[in-house]
Structure formats: structure tokens, C-alpha cells
Amino acid sequence: xxRTQGQTEQHEQPTGASAPAEPTAPAAPxxxxxxxxxxxxxxxxxxxxxxxxxxxxxxxxxxxxLRPGTEPTRPAKRDAAARAARAAAARPPALPGPAxxxxxxxxxxxxxxxxxxxxxxxxxxxxxxxxxxxxxxxLDAVADRCAGLAPDGVVRLxxxxxxxxxxxxxxxxxxxxxxxxxxxxxxELLARVREIGAVVLLDDLEMGGTALDELMRATPxxxxxxxATPDIRTPxxxxxxxxxxxxxxxxxxxxxxxxxGVGRPLTDEETAWAGDLRFASEGxxxxxxxxxxxxxxxxxxxxxxxxxxxxxxxxxxxxxxDAVHVPLPTLAEGAAPAELLASRASESARAALRIACxxxxxxPHHAHLPALVGDTHADxxxxxxxxxGLLTPVGPRYRLASGVARQLEEVGYGAxxxxxxxxxxxxxxxxxxxxxxxxxxxAAEADAVLAALAGADVVAAVLLARTAAPAFAASLxxxxxxxxxxxxxxxxxxxxxxxxxxxxxxxxxxxxxCEERLDRARAELETSIGLRGALADKxxxxxxxxxxxxxVDRETAGAAVSPPLRLEAPAAPAASPEAVxxxxxxxxxxxxxxxxxxxxxxxxxxxxxxxxxxKVAPVAPGARVAPVVPVSAEAVTRMTPxxxxxxxxxxxxxxxxxFEDAFPLNPKPAPPAAPRPAPAPAPxxxxxxxxxxAGAGALTVVALGTVVxxxxxxxxxxxxxxxxxxxxxxxxxxxATTAVNSGNDPAPEPPVSAPPAETSEPGQSAAPxxxxxxxxxPSRRPSxxxxxxxxxxxxxxxxxxxxxxSPTPTETAAPSPTTTTTQTGTGTAxxxxxxx
Length: 836
Known about the structure:
The strands form 5 sheets. The chain has a 5-stranded parallel β-sheet, sandwiched between helices. The longest helix has 29 residues, at 685-713. The protein contains 26 helices and 17 strands. The chain is an alpha/beta fold. Helix 2 (109-120) crosses helix 3 (135-145), helix 13 (347-358) crosses helix 17 (417-432) and helix 20 (458-474) runs antiparallel to helix 21 (478-495). Strand 1 and strand 2 form a beta hairpin.
């Protein structure tokens, strides 16, 4: 039993202290003293993955990367003696008072032999049975038979309260390996548990499905015996876990168990009552353990023991003893015996039951009952309740058996739950903060501490969470550490304790950083830094910023690196396995053969049709097409295969060369080298008609241009000094309209993307002279010198020009006089068009 009063001795070295405490005069206790003031603060250094963690209960934990040369070595496995000592420490402690007699294991030989046989073959088994069917007793019997089956022996674990396999894997790791003050990262943990070959007995399983599959995959060399109730989720079909169902006992075994519990043969009346009880309880062993306790209490009340018959009545009593006959319990009392058993128990036992009901069924360690109950002999109440069948062992502790808490709450045992929880919380706040209590003791009492924290008021909850959190962190029970930190942060927020709230958020951020949850760590640390900044807490702010800097470093190191740019182009566009985004002019591309499936352009890509473009006459099938000259300064994004844009002799090797080829600073005409002709598309019924219509339209335009040119050649007006820009495509007939202002109309503004065009000489106009018919016989021949044309550059068309490419050419009427210039392979024809 731990020391609960007084200070530590002068020559005693407390846990985590760097030097013995100097003897000081005793000071008067003050109201502001914290529970941690009973001794020096416990500062514990741990290794958590790649970090060195220092648990500081005063200012908050400090975390930093491991220094070179301080990395922990590979842990060694425990030998058989060390495993046996650790397994004995993990069992429930020995109770003061009379020893509880061992209960026989009846009618379980067949199940035990089957389980041992399956585990010997390396198979995993799920033992399913209702609460009180004797699953834990059967696991104890199987553990004795499987001691030498695996190289790492038999490992006993408790799955109570574990919904995820993480903590179970850490518990398995610490049981098999000698790794004190070390909590490995996830990668190292998985690597170490894969090397464990043991028979794992997991009692009170509470997880199934994918979580159980993850546990099985992480430990492929282990054979599991999983004890669970029928309401737990079943394993998946791919887990290949054998199912063994544990049913109730037979009538003969129930009678044998009842006689062993009573210690005498049963009467005929008791035998008949036991038969009815077996039918009502389906033969559960727990019900007959409780029934035996009822019969023992009845015997004591009826004074049927031989020792009582030999004594003379009234010798040690004030009045003669009256003969009282207590009848057998009813069938309802036998099926739900908690109320009757509690009423006949001692006062300390009933007080312990009230505390257990207030803590959600968790019973504190028997060393805490004298302080909680107020009776120096209250520690013997645990053995009394266990003999009555009201308690059941769960790992290294005890809790109320199945259904007992509900039965007691119905008769008023939960009326004082809030007061009992508050008393337990204040007691645990003092006990967990005492310097003489090692963190391992606090971890063993984790469930009772968390239950007291959940039922206490906000002031007691903040005090308990503040003292228990460092102990859970130092004991490597990090699941309880996280739960107590979250409960403490919520209680501190309700109580208005800003400093305590900042501490809890800082610890949550450090915990998330140790577990590689960077988003959660950043959120918690930023919250803590903000709260401590409001309080002007410089030391806490510095500690939070250091931890936040580590989060930033981890995020930078773990950021996903983008794949490098592919600079090598495939041989042909059709053979390109990938498609990338390049910039192409807003002009209709020639139709080519369909590309592979990986290089197809998505539906959202053809946005080039929305941009204004110049009309292009259709091209006859089979003709050689020169490289497309950009006709617009605007570029749109299209999904096209990776092809070389220019005829560079060498493959570009830098990103700047790739962009220089795709977006030249000084656009130049295409080189004279003829490109690879595009393959002709497969003829379709609708395409033949479109080609014929396109050809007819092209012939009509040529004929009309010839007639207009002949009409202009007989005109008296001089040809314009400056003509419009003409595309030099010898095979494609291209029409472009250029607006020329008249004498009274304002000059239209050039497009934003078009380069500045050369202005014509003053006084000259390309429009025909008013009063003269354009069809008159020309009075003089046109100038033999063709009009000067600007260099072929990309010119944005006017907004009046149609932008949709169509195989059939159409004419667009402009509101101002325009001149249409058509260039063919034989010459250039200029036709004036007047306003209608």
C-alpha cells in the first residue's frame, strides 16, 4: 500500500528528480497549494518515435528531435522468467481477508481440448459466449496448456475499452520486448510486432470487422484466442477465424457447482429450486455462483451451522436469540440476486457498491476504499463482494458483474452518484499528484480515474485532469492520456480556467505530433499559443512555438513532391501515351486520325471555338498542308499530345527551352520544311456531302473574285496605296475583311491583340468614288505593281468576323464600306462592297 501521509524522507530519491531534496522547515499549507506540492515535480524523459519527449507537469511537455547518437537500440525480447513475472503483475491483486475458494471448471473439457488443438496448429479462434458463461475461467485453463507452444510464450491482454488495434499492439510490444521508457513510432512498431510469435489470449474483446483484421495482419506469427460476447461485431470473412460458442452448463454440473459454493449437500427443496433456476438462467455459471452466496447467507441467518447449535443462546448477547427461519429465495430473486445479496452484505461492502455505481461499474483498488468509505477495514469488502459473485476480474482490476449495476440502480444505489463521483475525483487528484505514486500505479487505476473524471464537477475535473495527465504520459498509457486531456480541456473551458485550458491544448498538440497527426497537432498548438499569448505566458508560448516549428518541419519533409515535367516527346502524336496541357493558337486544327485512349482530348478542352478566328476555306482531301501560321495573338489552353512545336535540331533539355518553343517571343513564319501530312479521315456518308458543298463554295468565291477584279480593272480610280494583310498559304483560299473608314465616319479602334497596322496616305481611300458605277468600263489599266502588303503576322480579326470554322464559306456584311481581298494561286482580286 502506498504512503498516503507525510513527506518523502530526506535521503529518498523521488521519481524523475535530478538531485535529493534539501531539508526544509515544514510550511503551513495554503489554500492555493496544488496536489503536486506534496513532493518534487515528476519530470520524466521518454523516447517517442523520432522525438525526445520530456513530460513536465508544471509548464507542459517539451518535445525535440532525437540528437545524433541518442537513438535507442533495438530492444531485446524478454525471457521466460521475465514474461512470467510480468504476467503475474497483470493479474488482479491478492485481496485481504479470507481467501476466495477456487471455482471448478465443469463441462468444459471438450471446448478446452478443441481450443488447444486449434492454437497448436497456428489457427486463431473466437470464443463467443454471453456474460457470465465462464469465458475468463476457460482462458485460464487454456493458458496453462499452451505455455510451450510458441517461442514467445503466452501473452494475456485485456481488450476492454479498446475499439482500435493501436493500443493493443503497443501493449503486446511492451509485454514481449524490454523497452522501458520507449514508445516506438508506427513503422517501427509494425516491424517489431511482426517478429512476435506467441499465443495471445485476448479477453473482453470489443472490436471486430476491419479493426480486428488490421490487428491480425500486423501480427502474422501470432495465434489469437479472442473471448467476446455475441453482441460484438463478428470478424470478416477473409480473416479465417474459427468460431467456438460457449453454452450454459447442464443440470448435473449446475448442481455440482452449487454444492461446491455452499459447502454442503443440497436438500430436495434446494435441488428443485436449482433446477428451476437453471431453466430461467440458461445454465450460466455466474447465476449459480450468486445462488450459492444466497444459500450461504440463508444458512447464516437460519443459524443452521453446527457451531451455532453447540453454543448456548444468549451468552454473548443482551437478549436470547430468536429462532428465525428464512425461506428459499424466489425464482425472480435468484435470476436477479444483486439487491438481495447487497442487503445482506456488510456496510462497507454496500458503500463500495455505491462508489462502483457512481463510477460506471468500476471499483477502485482496495487500497483506496478506506479513504473513500471512511472505514479502516473497508479493504476487505472486495473479497466479500467477489465471493458473492457481484464482482468480476477485468485485467488487473475488478468491476461489477454483468447486470449488477442496473439491478442496484433500480433500488436506489445510484441516488448519491454525483456526490460519490466528486469524492472519488478529489481523492484521485490528491493521490495521482503525490510524488510517492509511480506512474505505473496510476496507469493500473486508469479506468476508475477516468470514470471519476466524467462524473465530477468542473472544478474537481480540472484538478484531477491536471495531475493525472502527466502520470498517464509517463506510464505510456497514451489512450488514457488523450481521454483525460480532452475531458480536462472541456472542464477548463466551462470553469473559465484559461491557463489550464492552454496547458491541455498544448499537451494534446504534443501527443498528436508524437503520433504523426500533423493537422491535429497544428490546430491544438495554435490554440494553446493564442491562449498563452493572451495570458502573457512567455515560457509556455516559447514551448508551444518550438513544438509548432517541429510540426512545420514535418509537414515540409512529408509534403508530396510533384512529378517532374516530361521533356522528351514521343515520335508521333498518335503514339503518345500521355496528354499534357500546352498552349495552341485559337485556330481550328486539321482533323487527324483518332489518338489513343490515353491521349484523347476531354470534352471540356475544345474551348477554341469560342474565340474569334478568321474564316479558312476548306482544304481538298489529300493536299499537302503547310504549317499553320498563328492568326491570333490570343492563345487558349487545349489538351494536345506532346509534340515538338518547332523544328529544333536538338531535344530541349530545360524548362525555359520548352516554353520558348511553345510560346516564342517573336512569332516567325513556319520553316520551309514540310510537316508530316495528316492522315485522311475515313469517309463517312455525311462527310462526302460536306466536302462537295465546300468545293462548290470555293469555286463560287473564285469566280466572284475574278468578275470583281475585271470590273475594277476598268475603273478610273487608283488602286489603294496600302492593302490589307494577306496570308501566304498557296493551297488554301483565305478570305479576310478589312474595314476602311469613309470621309465622315470615325476610324474604328484596332483590336487590343492586333499589332499596329501601317496607315495609308492622307487623302486616299479604298472605297469607290461616289457617282461612278463599279460596273463601268475602266478608263485606264491598273498598276502593274501589286499593292504593298505587311509581313505575315498574327492579326486578330474584327469582332464582325464570324469565329466558327465551317466547311461552307459564308459572307459577313460589314456596316462600313469594306474591301475583300482574295488571293489564289494565280493572282489577287479586290472587290469593293458598298453599304446596302
